[in-house]
Design brief:
Radius of gyration: 15 Å
Helix content: 25-40%
Shape: elongated
Number of strands: 0
Distance between the termini: 34 Å
């Protein structure tokens, strides 16, 4: 099962993430957001 959450308070989000990491049945995959409207292939001409 995958769940995507958006937490508006950064400090509470970090605390929640640390809690979830302690649970043996939860896998955390991090992704990084790119700036809205800018695609890497457009910048580098890929």
């Amino acid at each position: 099962m995958k769940i995507v959450m958006e937490v508006e308070d950064t400090n509470r989000g970090k605390a929640l993430l640390e809690f979830l990491k302690q649970l043996p049945f939860v896998k955390i995959k991090s992704t990084r957001k790119t700036r809205k409207g800018i695609q890497l292939n457009e910048v580098f001409g890929i």
